[in-house]
């Protein structure tokens, strides 16, 4: 925990995120409860176990309180559950907007197919692997930002346990199984995670071997989602922006490309053997 206690009790808010209105309202409510209890920020912070600077930031709406912070505040201020009840609204706002948008699409998907050429897909990542990826970003993220993005990425993985189960397919580049992001121990845990996920009946994981001479995925990442509504959308990420694709002609191109990528990759059975071999060598 830093001097503010921010690492353990709040996330930094993106000033361009419209969820700021929700967080600002929560902050004002907290301030009203604190003042009604006759406590200044320093006194309240002491009872909470955090510095007054963090209290001011949360009350101004520039920090997003974690659920445990709201639970503790409810107890300290004797709010009878009224402060803790705000966790529902904060839960929706605590993740970055682009992550919320992607998670909403994934929640509506009955099929998802994804190819990535540099990193493992976020749905497949372990917490340690995800944290290592965010920690090596440049310009560097603050520790607070890293934790917020990691929490959001892990929350998306509820998709694996939805009922009815969506059909999920992933094509991974061989290099993503070999590059020791976060160190050998992190990579080993990540490979074990891939084998666990690949054993699920609704999931197929394939490896694109580096030695493959034909490769339809050289244009970059592809993610295609078939939604419950019957529509199909695609989602592509780049260095500085992410884009939702809804034009039928563009989606047809990406579906065709993804199908070819799958045909060029190792089969799911061969891929599992490949991952097992990589794990044994790590």
Shape: elongated
- In total, the number of strands is 8
Largest sheet strand order: 5-4-3-6-7-8
Radius of gyration: 22 Å
Overall pLDDT metric: 89
SS field, number of helical segments: 12
Helix and strand succession? HEHHHEHHHEHHEHEEEEHH
Topology diagram in text:
Layout: H1 6-9, E1 10-12, H2 20-36, H3 41-48, H4 52-60, E2 63-65, H5 67-76, H6 87-93, H7 97-108, E3 109-116, H8 127-135, H9 143-156, E4 167-173, H10 184-198, E5 203-208, E6 222-227, E7 232-237, E8 242-245, H11 248-264, H12 268-281
Parallel strand pairs: 3-4, 4-5
Antiparallel strand pairs: 1-2, 3-6, 6-7, 7-8
Based on the model shown, name its key terms:
282 residues, alpha/beta, 6-stranded mixed sheet, two-stranded antiparallel ribbon, 12 helices, elongated
Describe the structure.
The chain has helices spanning 6-9, 20-36, 41-48, 52-60, 67-76, 87-93, 97-108, 127-135, 143-156, 184-198, 248-264, 268-281; strands at 10-12, 63-65, 109-116, 167-173, 203-208, 222-227, 232-237, 242-245. With 282 residues, it is an alpha/beta fold. The strands form two sheets. A six-stranded mixed β-sheet has the order 5-4-3-6-7-8, sandwiched between helices. A two-stranded antiparallel sheet has the order 1-2. Helix 2 (20-36) crosses helix 4, helix 3 crosses helix 4 (52-60) and helix 8 packs antiparallel against helix 9. It is elongated, with a radius of gyration of 22 Å. 32% of the residues are buried.
């Amino acid at each position: 925990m830093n001097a503010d206690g921010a690492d353990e009790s709040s996330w930094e808010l993106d000033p361009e995120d419209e969820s700021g209105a929700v967080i600002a309202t929560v902050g004002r409510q907290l301030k009203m409860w604190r003042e009604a209890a006759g406590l200044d920020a320093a006194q309240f912070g002491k009872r909470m176990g955090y510095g007054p600077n963090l209290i001011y930031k949360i009350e101004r709406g520039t920090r997003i309180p974690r659920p445990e912070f709201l639970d503790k505040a409810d107890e300290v201020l004797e709010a009878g559950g009224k402060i803790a009840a705000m966790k529902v609204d904060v839960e929706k706002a605590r993740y970055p907007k682009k992550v919320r948008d992607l998670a909403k699409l994934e929640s509506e998907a009955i099929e998802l197919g994804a190819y990535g050429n540099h990193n493992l897909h976020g749905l497949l990542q372990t917490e340690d692997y995800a944290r290592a990826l965010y920690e090596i970003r440049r310009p560097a993220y603050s520790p607070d930002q890293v934790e917020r993005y990691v929490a959001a990425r892990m929350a998306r993985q509820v998709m694996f346990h939805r009922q009815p189960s969506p059909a999920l397919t992933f094509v991974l580049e061989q290099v993503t199984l070999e590059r020791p992001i976060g160190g050998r121990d992190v990579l080993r845990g990540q490979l074990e995670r891939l084998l666990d996920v690949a054993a699920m009946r609704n999931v197929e994981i394939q490896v694109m071997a580096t030695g493959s001479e034909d490769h339809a995925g050289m244009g970059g990442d592809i993610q295609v989602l078939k939604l419950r509504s019957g529509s199909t959308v695609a989602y592509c990420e780049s260095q500085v922006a992410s884009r939702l694709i809804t034009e039928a002609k563009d989606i047809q191109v990406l579906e065709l490309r993804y199908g070819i990528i799958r045909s060029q990759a190792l089969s799911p059975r061969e891929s599992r053997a490949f991952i097992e071999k990589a794990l044994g060598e790590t």
